[in-house]
Structures are given as C-alpha cells and as structure tokens.
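To the wet lab folks,

You asked to see what we're planning to order before we commit. Fair enough. Below is the target structure as tokens, and below that is the sequence we designed to fit it. If anything looks off to you, flag it before the synthesis order goes out.
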C-alpha cells in the first residue's frame, strides 16, 4: 500500500454538493480525496487503503451495509478506521436516536452536524488522519514484534514475572527462568501438561475449562489463581494470555504471563486501613471543631473555625496525596484485571475523593481556597447552567430566570461560582419536596457609605435564589451558615454547602444574605463585586492522559514530607522520568549547586527553613529558565508570583503529568 492510498480520504456523499465541498476543503490542507458512488465502492476502496472516510447520514440510511460491516469486522488488530459522519440533526443519542445504529456499525465515528464551519471539518479530518497514522505506527510495531521472538524471550527472562509461550493448540513449550525459580522445577518437569501439578487441585478444572474456551475462541485468557512455590506454599497470581496472529489473522502462538499479586493484596489491605483511619481522623477533627465552636462567642466562632480548617487542610492533603497517588498507580496497573481487585481499588479511590471534597469545602468556608478570579458575565454563566439546574431540581419544580438590563460584570472565579449556584439550587429543591417554584434573579445594586457593615461602598451584582419551600424559623436561619449544621437526615449532606458559599462570597469581597419565612420559602442573596468589563473565563483544566512529556525528564523533587515525596517520586518514575529527591529547600539548593542538569523542579510550598516561594526565587537566580512546579495543600500565596504554576494536593498522576508537561512545553 502506497502512502498516497494510505492517507487519502474516501468521500461518500451522494446528494448535493457535499462531495465537492469536502474535496475542496481537504485539498487545502494537502489531503487527497477519492469520491465513492456507493457503499460497495467505499468498501472496495477501504480494502485498497485510506486514512479516513467522510460519509453522509443519508448514504447509509437505506443502503446494504453488509459488505462494509464485514470489512470493519475483519480489520487487523492494529486498525480502527476513522469515520466522519455528516448528519442533518445532532449527532448525540439524545437528539438523534439513529446515531446508535451508525455508532454500532462504524465504531470509530465522529458525528458532525450540518451546516458546519469549514474549520470544523478540517480540524476533525486532521485529528482522524493523525489517529490513522498512529495506527500505521502500531502496525509497524506489531510486525516488528512478530519478528523478534528471540528478543522477547531474552527480555522475558529478565522481568520479575512468570512468562510462557504456547502453541496454537495450547501446548506450552517455553517458560522463562522465573517459573523454574519460583516452583523449584526443571524444564523436563513442565513437559506434557506438567504445569497442572503446580495448581490447586480444587481450582484446576475451572482453569482447564477457561483455557479451553480461549483456545476455541481466540479470546484472551485472564484469571487469578494460586500457584505452588518450591517452599510448598501457594501464592496468588494474576495470569493473562494473549493470542499472537499472523498477517492473515491465524493464531501462531500464545503469549502468557503470571504476576505474583500477594504484595498488591497486602498493599490494598493497608490502603483500606489507612483510608478508614483517615475517615476516623476526619470525624475526630470534626467533633473537636464542633466542641470548640460551642465554647466560642457567636461573633468569633466563624472566623476561628476558618483558621482551624485552613490549618488542618494542609495536614489532610499531605495524608491524602500518597494515598491517592498509590491508588492511582494501582488502578492503572491492575484496574483492568480481576473484577474484585478493581472494585476494591475503585472503592478506596472513592473514599479518598470523598475526603478530598470535604477538605475543599472546608477551605471554601475558611476563605483559604485558591481562586482564579476574572471579570465574568454572570448572566451568561447562569444561562449556560440552566439545563444542569433543571435536571438537578427535577420536573416537579418550575425554574424561572430573570435579569435586569445593563448588568455589570462581576469579579468571580467562574468554576467556584457555578458550584455555589448549584448548591443553592439543590438546597432549594430539598426545601420543596412536593414541588414548587425556583427563581434566579440577577440585578445591579449600589452600596453607599455606611450602608452595609459587611460590604464596601460600590457597585455589586446581586444574584438571588428564591424558592417557595418550607422555609426556616429564626433559630435555624441564624445557624444556617454554621459548618456542619444541617436539618437534613444523616447521610444526606455534610452541612458545609452554605458555609462554603458564605466563605466564597467573603473571599471575593461580597457577602451571602439569607432571609426566610416558615411555610413561604427562602431567599438567598449572593452579593458579588462588579468589574469594569467582562472577559473570557479561564478554561477549565482537563485531566491529561497519563503520559510523559515526550522524553524522560531529569526532575528535582523537593518535599519535607517523606510519604508525600515518596509517592510523588513513584508517580514521576512511573511516567518514565528520572527523579532526584531533596527533603527541604536548603538540600535542593545544595544539589543544584553541584549540578543544574535538570529539566524541571517540582517543589512543595510549606516546608521548614525555606518555603517553596523562597526556593523558587533562589532557583530563578541560579537558572532563570528552569521550569518550576509548586505543589501545595494550602498556603498563603501573597508572597508568590501569581504566574508561578501550581498544583493542589491531593492530586492524581494524570494531574501531575498534565501540569509537568505544561511547564516543560512552555519553557521550550
């Protein structure tokens, strides 16, 4: 297959000028096209080679797609042909129910609704071609793999797992040295099905039956079972086997591995215990905090609690970071394995995420969360949330949104404001169990001198959430924004929602006011300081795929917490990077004094003797171009350049990879 065929676009658009338009657009970016007159011709041309295909919905609606379906089904393992389907309606299942049929038929399909902007088609075409090129690269790697079995055997003997190769009929004819070292057997002991003697006799019939199914169907084999060691004891192993096929799709051999997972299971048990301990410590700290609040004067208790929660957030995040990081690594390594193991890891991650959410809410109440404020069009933000709010409050509640003309922009963190609005709407929903009306009002308000003890004079945008629910009496209303105070049942809320909103409003320079009458409803007024003009909100970060920055990096990692430092180092090494560790800023500068041969520095903020901000300034003096990533669970950023890249604890490996890649790419 020539590159002209392998990277061309096939176009099947029988009606109108779609074919001419698409051909012209693709020609402008250097992509050759071949226009097909029918599905059968498309199938024939696919057999010859193509980079991707552009098809209209009407071309498939009544056509016989048996041949196309058969071609797609017999694609080699490296191939997943990209399709761009031009539709007359929305491509999603909600707006276009027939999309499910096309998705099932084509598999790797991108829906593009007409009419569309030319740059959209060009962007999707480029993405599809890049994906196809990666498939060609995968094909080359697979072909190389078929020709390098000897190298594989050499490698297999060097890895700490049992490896084996079997004939197409399942007869195992080679094991790596790990098998003989673990079992204490010799090669002649494993001939003629000798592998069965190292299995638990109770499970052997199930293993044999499952292996027979894989031999018959060609499907991968995967199972967890105990293997007998030379010490006479059984240890659990995760066994996987994959068929190796020739270019005609025929199985030529089976490659298998068996990995000792006893250490992993021990680690899971330890992680579960630590997660439980963390929850107990959270409950203990919460109880202590509530006891302290009871002893404080009404005017002091909210501020005092803010100081407490901000302080413990750093400790909690340091505890969560190694737990979350190790769980993330385990999920990546074993998440696709045994269902029970995957469930246990996922459950532990869920517990860590719950604790992370709790800490974030505490920081929100304490007014110590890191905000990314900008001048924002709050009316547009609310309008963009309309569908989300409607689905959250349910069909029994009528949603109304009203706004005054000439609304000012507001200085807010759009992401945090969205969360606050959603919290207010959900609270209103819970106050209307039998249905009712929820109104969101936006208007401009002026605060004059001495008019409000909580707000500075000036222009504000007032966002009001009004419900017709059960309302609150004065006692409940007075305590509504207290942390952990809730009128909901156990398990139905943390009691931190209004506290977080109150803290956010104060941190933005505004305020939250509540008014309510039993039986008539509740009104929540969120006062937001006006900005001079609107600007685009900063994009919401998207979790990057777990990948290195394109090459192994030499990284200096600085953190005084050994558990955090060790966990972070393991995540970086798992990404393929080389890591040098330092326990504080002084030690880091000593390392840099000996050599500056590093690609990036990753440092904690809160450290004794020298914090991350001071270390950053010192490093910039030594090497002004050095990429630096600051990691913190909670800190006062007043003495730090706001442009310094930051990553908040706890984080997952994908977050770390994303931020690291960003600072390295920016420094190039």
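Sequence we intend to order:
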């Amino acid at each position: 297959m020539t590159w002209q065929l392998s990277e061309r676009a096939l176009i099947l658009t029988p009606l109108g000028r779609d074919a001419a338009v698409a051909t012209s657009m693709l020609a402008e970016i250097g992509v050759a096209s071949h226009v097909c007159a029918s599905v059968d011709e498309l199938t024939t041309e696919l057999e010859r080679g193509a980079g991707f295909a552009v098809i209209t919905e009407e071309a498939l609606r009544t056509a016989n797609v048996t041949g196309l379906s058969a071609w797609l089904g017999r694609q080699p393992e490296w191939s997943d042909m990209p399709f761009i389907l031009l539709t007359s309606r929305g491509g999603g299942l909600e707006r276009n129910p027939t999309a499910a049929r096309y998705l099932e038929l084509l598999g790797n399909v991108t829906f593009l609704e007409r009419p569309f902007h030319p740059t959209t088609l060009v962007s999707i075409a480029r993405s599809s071609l890049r994906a196809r090129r990666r498939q060609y690269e995968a094909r080359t790697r697979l072909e190389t793999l078929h020709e390098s079995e000897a190298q594989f055997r050499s490698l297999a003997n060097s890895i700490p797992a049992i490896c084996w190769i079997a004939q197409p009929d399942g007869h195992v004819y080679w094991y790596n040295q790990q098998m003989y070292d673990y079992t204490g057997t010799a090669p002649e002991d494993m001939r003629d099905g000798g592998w069965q003697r190292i299995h638990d006799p109770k499970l052997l019939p199930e293993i044999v039956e499952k292996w027979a199914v894989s031999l018959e169907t060609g499907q991968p084999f995967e199972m967890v079972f105990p293997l007998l060691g030379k010490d006479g004891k059984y240890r659990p192993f995760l066994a996987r086997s994959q068929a190796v096929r020739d270019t005609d799709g025929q199985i030529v051999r089976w490659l298998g591995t068996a990995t000792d997972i006893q250490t992993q299971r021990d680690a899971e048990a330890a992680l579960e215990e630590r997660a439980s301990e963390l929850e107990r410590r959270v409950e203990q700290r919460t109880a202590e905090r509530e006891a302290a609040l009871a002893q404080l004067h009404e005017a002091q208790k909210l501020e005092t609690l803010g100081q407490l929660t901000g302080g413990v957030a750093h400790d909690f995040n340091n505890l969560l970071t190694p737990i979350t990081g190790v769980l993330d690594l385990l999920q990546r390594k074993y998440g696709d394995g045994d269902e029970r193991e995957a469930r246990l890891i996922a459950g532990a991650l869920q517990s860590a995420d719950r604790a992370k959410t709790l800490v974030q809410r505490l920081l929100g109440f304490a007014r110590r969360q890191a905000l990314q404020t900008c001048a924002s069009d709050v009316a547009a933000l609310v309008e963009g949330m309309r569908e989300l709010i409607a689905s959250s409050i349910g069909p029994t509640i009528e949603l109304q949104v009203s706004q005054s003309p000439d609304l000012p922009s507001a200085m807010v963190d759009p992401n945090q404001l969205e969360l606050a609005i959603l919290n207010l709407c959900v609270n209103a929903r819970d106050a209307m169990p039998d249905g009712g009306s929820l109104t969101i009002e936006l208007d401009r308000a002026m605060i004059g001198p001495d008019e409000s003890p909580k707000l500075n004079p000036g222009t504000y945008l007032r966002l009001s959430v009004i419900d017709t629910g059960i309302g609150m009496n004065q006692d409940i209303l007075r305590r509504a924004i207290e942390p952990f105070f809730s009128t909901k049942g156990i398990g139905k809320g943390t009691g931190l929602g209004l506290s977080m909103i109150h803290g956010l409003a104060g941190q933005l320079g505004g305020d939250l006011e509540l008014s309510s009458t039993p039986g008539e409803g509740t009104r929540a007024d969120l006062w937001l300081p006006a900005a001079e003009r609107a600007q685009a909100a900063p994009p919401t970060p998207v979790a990057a795929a777990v990948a290195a920055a394109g090459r192994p990096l030499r990284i200096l990692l600085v953190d005084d917490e050994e558990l955090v430092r060790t966990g972070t180092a393991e995540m970086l090494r798992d990404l393929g990077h080389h890591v040098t560790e330092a326990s504080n800023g002084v030690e880091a500068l000593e390392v840099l004094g000996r050599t500056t041969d590093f690609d990036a520095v990753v440092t904690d903020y809160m450290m004794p003797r020298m914090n991350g901000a001071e270390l950053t300034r010192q490093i910039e003096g030594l090497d002004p171009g050095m990429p630096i990533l600051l990691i913190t669970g909670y800190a006062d950023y007043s003495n730090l350049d706001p442009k310094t890249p930051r990553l908040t604890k706890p984080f997952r490996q994908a977050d770390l990879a994303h931020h690291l890649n960003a600072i390295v790419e920016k420094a190039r």
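Structural context that might help your review: The mean pLDDT is 82. Residues 374-531 form a domain with the Heat Shock Protein 90 fold (CATH 3.30.565.10).

Thanks,
Computational group
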